[in-house]
Amino acid sequence: MILPIVAYGDPVLKKKAKAITPEYPKFKELLENMYETMYGAKGVGLAAPQIGLPIRLFLVDTAPFAADEGFTEEEQKELGSFKKTFINAEILEEDGDEWAFSEGCLSIPGINEDVFRQPKVTIRYEDENFNEHTETFEGLIARVIQHEYDHIEGVLFTDKLSSLKKRLIKGKLSNISKGKCSADYRMRFPAMSKKR
Question: Which residue out of 78, 113, 126, 148 is catalytically annotated?
Answer without folding.
Answer: 148
